[in-house]
Amino acid sequence: MKKLYFAILLSLFAVVACDRAADVQSNGNDGHVLCAYYDDVFSKSVFTPSYGTSGMTWEKGDRINIFAAAYEYVYQAEADGSPVYFEPVDLPLTYTNSYYAVYPYQENPIFVDGMISAEVPAQQEVVKNSLAYHLAVAHSETLNMYFKNVCGLFRVRISEEGINRITIRGNADENLAGQIMVDASDASWEIVQGQKEVSLEMPDGQTFSEADYYVALLPQTFASGLTVTAYKTDGSSIVKNVAKEIVLERNGILGGEFSGGVWEVTTFAELTSVNNAQDLVLAPGGGFYMTVRGGSEHGIFKVSADGTSVTKLASTVDYPDLLSTSSYPWGGDFDSNGLFYFALKDSQKIATCTSEGVVTEYPVTGADLTNAMKVLLDAEDNLYVLARGSGAGKGKVCKIKNNSVLYTWNLTSALYETICFNADETAIFAFANSSGDIQMIDLADNTMTRVAGNGTGHSSARTYKDAIPGYPMTTTIGVVTSAICAPDGTIYFNDRSAKTLRKFIPDEDGGYGKGSIRTIAGKAWPVVKAEDAATALVKDGQGLNAVFAFPQGIALGSDGKTLYMVDGTAATCKIRKITYIKN
């Protein structure tokens, strides 16, 4: 009935309560009406995790047991929202000087001296990025009742394929669930008939998708730690054992992860012959095209498929006007015939480059191409050009065909740095320069929607945050210089500000509004020692142990899985290869 507000901290998640008062009002019914509030946090399957404040509302039909003057009553929420009132299902309660309550509704509960019988189930329902079961109690001298959580939560993060069952056990055989008696005043509990194991299990034939899942556990100190086991459909299992004392607080959240593998970062090519490589695009005939926008040669270069050679196709030497040192070749793409189109950022132009290195301007009528950043081409060879504009709110994405602008989407909120398609080219994503977000343009109805980020960037490892799974708005986003969508709909993008590589995972319906954003490689905001400052610190490695210098253009390999990314500036320029290695 009341929206809940709470704060979650990383590692052991602590919850902060926020009490609010409200007057009890009559709604004209004969039965007494009460206001039920959550004194602390989460409840039911609408639990909304967050790094900051999060909301919770009661749902119509929620039932609670009320005990007053030695009698039991059942009350029900009459509406969705925050706040709403609970009304009697049958008999109204009798006014008295003390009320006790439990949620969810319990069949034939026992009530003795402020203690209420309740059950924490050993097998709990699976809810993606949320939970299905929650137990809360309340004691009040008025009809404003503030509920306290009884349980803590254990979060299981799954990115491994094929898992269909999760179990959790205490290493000292503690009771994690079962029949209990709960003190309605302080939510303390006593075990009646305990259960040593709590599980989440998918229906037959189904497996967990990549997400977070929560189970409610009785809060306590696990003297010898916990063991979490993931069972797979092939009969194998993965065991995670933490063999040290763990404390799960009431309202607390502990977490673990089952990952199918790790992203390994290696050096694919040393770009010693170029200065400031910008974009990287998979070429139709193999290898990659690369735009270069620094030093004395701006131009287009080709990188071999094995990374052993870098060949100039065209540069300032060949085209001193069109590819001058003030032209700044930026982001590009291929059309259906293998012709490479690319933006000339400072020249405010679009140009093409053939496989033989012939560069030609592609004139566009009626387009403002100020700070042209990226060119995309769809299956019908329509061009989509991101022009960042002369300042915040002046950018645009233009759809172009036969040298003319067909449609323009204005990016009015802030600066955007790059764009990419979704998997079926029905949408375009615009990524932050200073906007702190990701916008999605629906190419069918031309609408634009923010799908990730809250408009806030980050300035340190402390303020750099991936999204709470299912809540992409909770992520913080810096400058994104490149992004690409894989065939499965996963969008990979860099965060140049933090020097990381991230992925945006769509939700089960293939949309992104409830997707998840995770960092897959690169240590966020790495500290560079003074002796390394001239060349920046670059390190191959796995996952977050790798260190990037200056992430730029991203290409997807011909296998549709391997990622290649330009990294570094004049002194450190490389192409990094990022490969997913299964455990």
Description:
A hairpin with a 3-residue loop joins strand 9 (136-140) and strand 10 (144-149). The protein has two domains: 34-259, no CATH class; 263-582, Neuraminidase (6 Propeller), CATH 2.120.10. A seven-stranded mixed barrel has the order 1-4-3-2-5-9-10. A five-stranded mixed beta sheet has the order 8-15-12-18-19, with no helix packed on it. A five-stranded antiparallel beta sheet has the order 43-22-46-45-44, with no helix packed on it. By secondary structure, the chain is mostly beta strands.
Regions with little confidence, pLDDT below 50 for 5+ residues: 1-32, 36-56
Q: Going across the major beta sheet, what is the strand order? A: 1-4-3-2-5-9-10
What number is the mean pLDDT? 87
* Global Rg: 29 Å
CATH architecture of the largest domain: 6 Propeller
Domain module count: 2
What is the overall silhouette?
Answer: elongated
CATH class of the largest domain: Mainly Beta
Structural class determined from secondary elements: mainly beta
CATH topology descriptor of the largest domain? Neuraminidase
User: Beta fraction of the residues?
Assistant: 35-45%
What's the end-to-end separation, in Å?
Answer: 45 Å
- In this structure, how is the largest beta sheet organized? 7 strands, mixed, barrel
CATH 4th-level superfamily of the largest domain: TolB, C-terminal domain
Q: How many beta-strand runs? A: 46
